[in-house]
Amino acid sequence: MRFDDLSQLPILAKRTGFTIFELPQPIDFATILPQAYRITPNDKNHILKEDIDTLIDLTKTKQATDFFCVVEYAETLNPNSAAAALKLLEEPKSNVHLVFLVRHSNQLIPTILSRAQLYTYTATDPASIPPSGDSILVDLAKQYLSATPRDLPSIVTTLTKTKLPKKTSATQTLQSASDDNARQVALAVVDLTITIATQSYLKTGDQRFISKLTKLLKTYDALSKNGNVKLQLIANML
User: Fold this and answer.
1) Residues contacting 164, CB < 8 A, separation 6+
2) How many domains, the chain?
């Protein structure tokens, strides 16, 4: 289902125990539902099982009023945390409302998607929203999307040598002080590339962007699971 008013999120979330909101750009959900319990990815861009276990413990107490938990960038759930989330969904609690915020719902595992009411925000034509992020990373994302097999290795080398800005709107939880800067830059750039490829397809209808998106999603998933950075950035896009 589609919706076009962000202020309606709490109302929509209250209707069911589990709701997924697909948003083309990050939002500050705290201003919309300030009392919600929030879970965000760690500095390696993962939501950990421990985070979900803490939420399970919180929901064991009977809730007299509506209790909202918002999982931001829920597509970064690792396999263990996704399994824990499924356990929570299989045992719904009264007055507990679990909300997943995602940019790409197709990155969630099917068993999670099947248990949720999915809403896609469409107040603005997604194809008209400019990529949000540091200009250097946006430029790298454009180069990565249009790279030929011959150019790809040099672009990837430049990408992995780039220092991550202290904060980017595309990956707000990632910090430049991370020990794995190359991986974090790669994740940020691939995430931006996915956005640009999606917008390009919506504008042109060119099926080549669908092929690129399939490869990009595979690349992002491999990088999230600690695959070799250079190898994944090159091999998955050929």
Assistant:
1) 174, 175, 176, 178, 181, 184, 185, 188
2) 2
